[in-house]
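Kindly inspect this chain:
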Amino acid sequence: MRFAAVALGVGFVGTILANLPAHSDANAESLVSLMRPSSEITGSIEPTGPQPAAAIRLIDLRNGATCKIAGPADAAAGFRRAPLGPDCAASPELARVAYWKTTGDGSLIMADGGGETVLEFIPGDGVLYESIYPSNALITIVPARG
């Protein structure tokens, strides 16, 4: 689906460029205004983002440590105690986590007892969250089953 949308977008831009007269700043501004979708189009698209999960599974891909916990609260809740149990202690990074919060952009931040960020996640493609900080963290979060 994404490939088709990209191909359609590229074709649309190519058609516009082919029909513009010689290059000028006015033409460039005209091109930009033509490429903005109308509110009628953008208003019909439902925003996507991570859907709140009742329970999630954290998986450390380095050592196989995995634990199931209640899903994070919404962004308005701010930092709160992370309900990580003893199964998460097998992961060096997860063992340091004391607090967590979601943000308005859908990210998930986990901090230690002193408030320093230990892990940061963004909504994933095929998973709920994938780790982005630190760059060498290999932890993923998926919906928990059962």
